[in-house]
Amino acid sequence: MLERITIDPAICHGKPCVRGLRYPVETVLEWLSAGMTPQEILADYEDLEPQDIQAVLAYAARLAQVKRIELLPRTIDARQRLARARELRAALAGKDFEAADIEAFKREGRE
Length: 111
Prior knowledge:
CATH class of the largest domain: Mainly Alpha
Order of helices and strands: EEHHHHH
Distance between the termini: 56 Å
Number of helices: 5
Number of strands: 2
CATH architecture of the largest domain: Orthogonal Bundle
Number of domains: 2
CATH superfamily of the largest domain: Winged helix-like DNA-binding domain superfamily/Winged helix DNA-binding domain
Strand order of the largest sheet: 1-2
Oligomer: single chain
Helix content: 40-55%
Strand content: under 5%
Radius of gyration: 26 Å
């Protein structure tokens, strides 16, 4: 089934496609997620076959299989970034950057 999905750098910039027909897998998935039925897709694109739609879904299912997901560290919001920038700017006033940065790290407990 997955042999129907091809990857060729000369076709659609190397994106996975259905049998090299210039139907990227992502496009067929977008049609399906937008609510088109396989029958509607096949009626609109006569060079596609029912097995092609099944292959697209099998390919997507294969890509979705993950062993684990690692969460990214919590990021600070814009207000916190702005406050931090103001704090550093104030610390830099009249001091060299390295000394001000070391003081900021000490306050944050990162040294």
